[in-house]
Write a structure and sequence with these properties.
Elements: H1 12-15, E1 24-25, E2 28-31, H2 36-39, E3 44-49, E4 55-59, E5 62-67, E6 70-73, E7 87-90, E8 97-100, E9 104-107, E10 115-117, E11 126-129, E12 135-139, E13 142-147, E14 150-153, E15 161-167, E16 170-175, E17 178-183, E18 186-192, E19 196-202, E20 205-210, E21 213-218, E22 224-229, E23 237-243, E24 246-251, E25 254-258, E26 264-267, E27 280-283, E28 289-293, E29 296-301, E30 304-305, H3 307-321, E31 323-324, E32 327-328, E33 330-332, E34 343-345, H4 350-368, H5 371-389, E35 400-403, E36 414-416, E37 422-425, H6 430-446, H7 451-470, E38 474-476, E39 482-487, H8 490-493, H9 501-521, H10 524-535, H11 539-543, E40 557-558, E41 561-562, H12 570-585, H13 590-607, H14 613-622, H15 628-637, E42 643-647, E43 690-697, H16 701-712
Antiparallel strand pairs: 1-30, 2-29, 3-4, 4-5, 5-6, 7-8, 8-9, 9-10, 11-12, 12-13, 13-14, 15-16, 16-17, 17-18, 19-20, 20-21, 21-22, 23-24, 24-25, 25-26, 27-28, 28-29, 31-32, 33-34, 33-43, 35-37, 36-37, 38-39, 40-41, 42-43
Helix pairs in contact: 3-16, 4-5, 4-6, 4-16, 6-7, 6-9, 6-12, 7-9, 9-10, 9-12, 12-13, 12-14, 13-14, 14-15, 14-16
Length: 717
């Protein structure tokens, strides 16, 4: 069935090149609270940092500084507390702040000695200060150097001034049409530009941001040193900043940074900024970048941490606010982004989402033998056991349960429990079934150590599999009817053509469940049923169907739903790969294992562009294939902020869009996960836009499972 797909039965320990968990840098955001007086009709002009790495903001309401996570009015120097500066700048080299007022300029550095008075108020509104103490002023009166109590005129610019800066003791002025350089008592044009908006310095190079990208010129000759870069996330640049040799650009649609590979990291949306319009940027000595927007101040830093550090963060986060009766829970946040307002809520797939967390704790226990990891795994299993006992049906698993009157999702699917304090949700589906066989397998292998513990797991899967067999391979709900998706009957499965994935996936999941039932209980009926389905009804042939055959096949309607329309089903990928662990490891024979390995490899090769760490690691543990670089990249770029903010990438000019295709792969290159919309493993990793108003938050088990799997499989030490 799989011509050209060689069957390598290497063990995963041999196939995996063990990666060392060395520290890496991942951007994270901090958004500073804005005081009420700046919230409305105020002008936040620029951000400036001093040599103490303190960030300050120049506004029309006064001078502000960062203190304890918020912007506060800078009242530290009493003589300046109530004054409103026209400009504040950091001196070249020293980083001392210099203040410009309508009638004077001064600094609190050097014991407050440098200062000067201005003969006419309000004629200058910009300043720059060289390392040797020279001060350049600019405004309606032109440019001038204070010297010995007087102002030496340095001429007028032919166009309105945009920026005034100093570099290596030389003053530079930027207008929309050029860069001007001080030469004696005048400024002469160094370089003619078009639609210039901002500049900064990189060695002997001036980087110029324009309305259509950025480029570089020599600070000595004005000749082009770096060609115009138009293929950037957002070409219209408001401010440009060089930090440790890397170029940052602020735009009306967020900020971007050129990384070491010549690609761009893109920072937009509430995940990164309180407003996408970046007006001004500044950096401190640690490389932290402060970005000023009309809504306030933000900081993007790149602290070094390990994957283990990241796992510890999500472990703590989950235990703090994401455990609901043992299930993993996503949160409702009102208002958006406010973790303090979080409320845990049921979802349509509590079992499936919880399976990722329970699985992570099973692998964690196998690696560390930490008692609390075992406790958390069994705590999760208690919720799975209760989905059977909370309802009045024999062996039928509820989707979830809640105290009466507090249900959240799909209210029409809830039923009263025999326990008057509780309700349970029916309509259980095949993806929940995948969760059951997955958690039973990993608990049996890694957590259940005593005979009683193993029997507990076996009893759980035995009840569910018996219900399915007794009900002719259906989940039958309280109304006596099969649920919409809980169907494995041959008439249903084989109704689909090979080109619709449900035929292959349904066969795969039920055979895996029967194999597991046989392994855990020893009951012959499970093996007999599996062999009957595989041999008489073609389920093995269905499982072996080449995934490359799956394509558009309209006209096959189930319960009013055309199953052959739409693109690739990424939820099916999630169900398939979790099932592969069970299918392969509980195969009846070595020959079946070889066939299953080919199935898994065939699917994995199609999925490789998505770089999914879980798919990689399950393939490693079964078929022996593995993309180590992709797995590390996935874990390292997994977002720290899991609030569902609105994310947009489709407008970016640095990505190559592909024509519409069945797999819905939108771009040639997968963008980092922390630039994507927040999603679980069942979503399309190539979706460029998505999210909402930040009113929900995922837990982080999506990261924990591949992390602990990688440790267990010795792909990571």
């Amino acid at each position: 069935m799989f011509a050209g797909l060689g069957l390598c039965m290497c063990s995963y320990a041999m196939a995996a090149a063990q990666a060392t968990d060395y520290p890496f840098q991942q951007p994270v955001s901090r958004q500073y609270a804005t005081p009420p007086e700046l919230a409305q009709q105020s002008v936040l002009a620029r951000v400036v940092t001093d040599y103490n790495d303190n960030a300050h903001v120049i506004t029309d309401k006064g001078f502000y500084r960062v203190s304890d996570g918020a912007l506060v009015r800078d009242r530290r120097f009493r003589p300046l507390a109530d004054k409103i500066p026209l400009d504040v700048t950091a001196q070249e080299g020293s980083g001392h702040l210099y203040y410009l007022y309508a009638d004077k300029w001064l600094t609190n550095g050097y014991a407050g000695v440098p200062y000067g008075t201005l003969p006419e108020k309000g004629r200058y509104n910009r300043m720059a200060v060289a390392a040797d103490g020279r001060v350049m002023l600019a405004g309606d009166a032109g440019l001038a150097l204070p010297e010995k109590g007087r102002l030496r005129a340095c001429g007028q610019l032919p166009e309105p001034l945009l920026q005034l800066k100093v570099h290596n003791g030389v003053f530079y002025a930027l207008t929309g049409k050029g860069v001007y350089q001080q030469a004696g008592a005048q400024f002469t044009r160094l370089h003619a530009a078009e639609n210039a908006r901002a500049m900064d310095f990189r060695g002997e190079e001036i980087i110029i941001g324009t309305s259509n990208g950025y480029y570089g010129i020599s600070s000595k000759t004005g000749d082009t040193s770096l060609s115009l870069k138009r293929r950037v996330p957002v070409p219209g640049i408001n401010d440009i900043l060089v930090v440790n040799g890397r170029i940052w650009a602020g735009t009306d649609e967020g900020a971007f940074m050129e990384d070491s590979a010549g690609l761009y990291r893109y920072f937009a949306s509430r995940r990164w900024l309180n407003d996408n319009r970046v007006k001004s940027m500044s950096a401190d000595a640690e490389g932290n970048v402060y970005l000023l927007t009309p809504a306030g101040l933000n900081r993007i830093s790149s602290p070094a941490h390990t994957l283990a550090d990241k796992a510890a963060y999500f472990e703590r986060k989950i235990r703090e606010r994401h455990i609901r009766y043992g299930f993993i829970a996503n949160l409702h946040l009102r208002p958006g982004g406010d973790a303090g307002s979080s409320q845990m809520a049921d979802t349509d797939n509590d079992g499936l989402w919880s399976a990722f967390y329970l699985g992570s704790q099973a692998f964690r226990y196998a690696v560390t033998h930490e008692p609390k990891a075992k406790r958390y795994a069994w705590e999760g299993f208690e919720a799975f056991e209760r989905i059977l006992s909370v309802n009045q049906l024999k062996g039928f698993p509820s989707r979830t349960f809640e105290r009466k009157g507090y249900k959240n999702s799909d209210p029409e699917r809830w039923r009263d429990s025999p326990d008057p304090e509780w309700e349970w949700k029916g309509h259980t589906s095949s993806d929940e079934f995948v969760a059951y066989i997955w958690i039973a397998a990993v608990l049996h292998e890694m957590v259940a150590e005593t005979a009683d513990e193993k029997q507990r797991v076996a009893a759980f899967i035995d009840k569910i599999m018996t219900h399915i067999i007794d009900n002719k391979y259906y989940f039958v709900d309280i109304d006596g009817k099969p649920t919409l998706w809980g169907r494995w009957n041959p008439e249903y499965i084989n109704w689909y053509p090979e080109t619709i994935g449900d035929r292959k996936l349904g066969s795969t999941t039920i055979i895996a469940g029967l194999q597991l039932g046989y392994a855990l209980t020893g009951k012959k009926k499970y093996k007999d049923e599996a062999m009957r389905l595989m041999n008489k009804h073609g389920y093995l042939k269905n499982i072996l169907t080449d995934y490359r055959k799956i394509t558009y096949t309209p006209g096959y309607k189930h319960m009013g739903i055309d199953m052959g329309t739409g693109g690739w089903n990424h939820s099916d990928d999630e169900m398939a790969f979790l099932t592969y662990w069970v299918l392969y490891r509980y195969a009846f024979t070595d020959e079946l294992k070889k066939q299953y390995a080919g199935v898994i490899r065939n699917h994995w090769e199609l999925e490789r562009p998505e770089k999914n760490a879980v798919w990689n690691l399950i393939t490693l543990a079964t078929a022996g294939d593995y993309d180590a670089d992709a797995t590390l990249w996935w874990m390292r770029t997994f977002p720290m902020d899991l609030v569902t903010w609105q994310i947009k990438n489709s407008h970016r000019k640095d990505i190559t869009l592909l024509p519409a295709n069945f797999r819905d792969q939108a771009t040639e290159r997968l963008i980092p996960l922390d630039e994507q919309p927040v999603h679980r493993h069942n979503a399309n990793a190539f979706d460029l836009d998505g999210g909402g108003k930040g009113t929900s938050e995922l837990a982080g088990d999506e990261y924990l499972l591949p992390y602990w799997m990688a440790r267990y499989l010795k792909a990571l030490n």
